[in-house]
Structures are given as C-alpha cells and as structure tokens.
Amino acid sequence: MATVRSSKDNDPQIGKAPKKSVFLWTYKDPEKKGAVQSGEIEAVSVTTAKVALRQRGFRDRYLTLTKQKESLLGGIKSADIVGFLQQLSTLQNAGVSLVESMQMLRLTAKKTAMRSMIQKMMRNLQEGNQLSDALALFPKFFDATSVALVRAGEQGGVLDTVLRNIAEYREKDYSLKKKIRSALMYPGITVAVMIVVVIILMVKVIPVFAKLFHSFNAQLPALTQIVVNLSYWLKDHVVFLIFVPALLIAALIWAYRRSYKVRWQVDRITLHIPVIGKLLLYGATARFMQTLALLYSAGVPIQESMNTLAKVSGNTVIDAGVAKARESVLAGGRIADGLKETYLPDLSVRMLSIGESSGNVELMARKTGEHYAREVEEMVARMSTLLEPFIMIMLGGIVGTLVIAMFLPMLDMGKAILHGSGVS
C-alpha cells in the first residue's frame, strides 16, 4: 500500500497536516485478460490516491476506488487482537524485524480492518517510532496497560516475552468479563421476558375475560376483581409504564457515560447489591491483581504501574481508591498499606502484603488474581444453578395467580348452573 504525501503535510506554517483516508482499489489489468488486482492506499483525497496509483503504472480507465469507512475498525474483535499479539511474539522470538513482522501479519490478516490497522502501525514504525507508539494509536484495542508493558519490554529487550504475556492476559481478562456479563445478563433477560408476558396477559387477555364475566352480571371473587381492576389500570397507562422507564434507563446510561459523579455513584451502589456486588468486586480484584503481576514481571516502573492500575478494575470507586493509594506508594509506602482503604477484599490486601514482605509481589499477585478468578467462576456457576428455579417459581406464581383469578368466576358460574338445574 503506497502512501501519498503532500508537500504541505509537514509545513509548520500550514499547521495541522490534512487528515488522510484509506481507499480500497481494484484494477482490471487489460494486458492480463482482465485479471483483477486489489489493495489499499492512504491519501488525502481520491485525486491524490489516483495520482499515486497512476505512478505505479495503473490506468484510470480500469481503476476503481472506494473510501474505507472508519467504522470498519469496529469489526475487530478481542480474539483478533489476541491472535495478532501471539503471532507478533512468535515472529519477534524468531528474530524477524518489526516492520517485516507487520508486513507478514498484514498479508495474512483476513479482515480488512485488521489489515488497515496493521498498515498504519507499520507506517508509524517506518517513521522511526517504537512499537509502543504504534499501538498507542489505537487505544480502543490497546489500552494503557498494554502500551506500558510493551514500552517496558522494548527497554528490557524482552519484547517477545512481553507480547506473549499480554496475549495470555488479554485472553484471560476477556474470558473473565464474558463470564460476569453472562451471569448478569441471564437473570436480566429472563425477568424482562417475564414482565413482557405478564403485561401481555394483563392488557390483552384479562380484559377479554372481564367482558365475558360482566356479560353474565356475575359477582366476581375478590382476587378476580383485584386482577381485573389492575388490568384496566395497566391498559390505560401501558404507554406511560413502558416509555418512562425506557427513557429513565436511557438517561441513566447517557449520564453514566458522560458524568464521573454519576458513574461513581452507580458503581458504588452496585458494589452493595447482594450477590451481584460481590461478583463485580471479585472480578475487579482478579483483574487488578493479574495486571499488577504482569506489570511487575515486565519491570514497569512503580509510578507508571500505579497510574495504570488506577484504570484497570472497571469500577470507578475502586479505581479512585487505587489512585489515592498511589500517593502513599510514591511517597515510599507499601502497595498493600495504600490499598487498605479501598474496596478490595481484605484477604487480597493481606496476601499482597505477604508478597511485599517476602519480596515476591509478582507471584503473590498472580496467585491472588487466579484465586479470585476461580471465585468468579464458582459464583457464576452457583448463580446459574440457583437463579433458574427461583425465576421459574416466581414466574409460575405470577402466571398461576392470574389463571386462578380467571377461573374462580367460571367455577362459581358452573356451580350456579348445576344448582339451578337441581332445583328445577
């Protein structure tokens, strides 16, 4: 893929260089019976892209250019990044240069988005930058932890080992997040379906029975009358009951993403929710300890390590506590002492303190992270086992109550009919 540079790109008097875009090109070679070639080219505009391709011998008449959408990078999954890091580690271990490694990975990448991202990294390396700088161009896929580790690996000459460790860490972290997400989504989806079923019964089915009962001028039992009254009320307010909660949830999500105070309050409340709060806390603790072990193994300086650790738990309250602990650590204190005032479990802090006392922080942090990761797995398994019958009992109780409420008048009318037949 060629890169077209304007003479104004690096002119300090012009200011910021024009933003370049990636164009996908196809060329039907008339000299090879219409054989199709394809590739990518980065340029400021279609015109400059065509000029660059024309210089390579392509004729406009047989050339097609389309601009690659930025959203294509959204097609990159966590598994793609893990695979990229593992392959790059292998190539580095074999002694292949970074630029050559990137070229090989770009040619073998199946996704257009991956090829585009690797191409930009390769170009950044060719300009004299380090791999950590190239990865930092894509914070969506390479967070501060990964960049800090790669930078430490570059300085220590163990880049291949660091890349392999990052890949393993990312794989474990993704698996942990997926398990927590699944544990939280299952009851949420089940309850949502239950609410929808009950609303349909109350708004569509119960009113039909109510009209039938009224046509017989039947005296409704107390339970049936309560259900019918509730059904009429829900029918009159169904729009309000659906859209207002939906708007409130949307507003909360919007505020959570944009306001630190809202995010802090929500994260604090979730930590106190029974079962769910413990699951989230253990997941955050496992992530924190595993990251600490990885940073120590790579030899990342303590100041940079604490800056990174204050962003990895996924919970604003825990991150704020770690950020506060950072000050005492930088003043010469121990990590465990600074973490005592955080939400992290006491056991994890004590285990880390033992590691600091014995001079083996990396091992103790890794063991602690593995312990809490196992705790998360066991909690997810228990939740799946216990929640399913509980939710089914609750759903059966609600639906059963509605069914009984509708059949009680029918039983009364049946008795009345039989009694009338006996009297006559």
TrEMBL record:
A Pfam family that the UniProt record links to this protein: T2SSF
Species of origin: Acidithiobacillus thiooxidans ATCC 19377
Ranges that cross the membrane: 184-206, 238-256, 390-411
Main location: membrane
Location(s) in or outside the cell: Cell inner membrane
Name under which the protein is recorded: Type II secretion system protein GspF domain-containing protein
Protein family according to the UniProt entry: Belongs to the GSP F family.
GO biological process, one term: protein secretion by the type II secretion system
Keyword Repeat found: no
Domain Type II secretion system protein GspF per the UniProt entry, residue ranges: 84-207, 288-409
Keyword annotations: Cell inner membrane, Cell membrane, Membrane, Transmembrane, Transmembrane helix
Superkingdom of the source species: Bacteria
CC annotations in GO: plasma membrane
Source species taxonomy: Bacteria, Pseudomonadati, Pseudomonadota, Acidithiobacillia, Acidithiobacillales
Bilayer topology: Multi-pass membrane protein
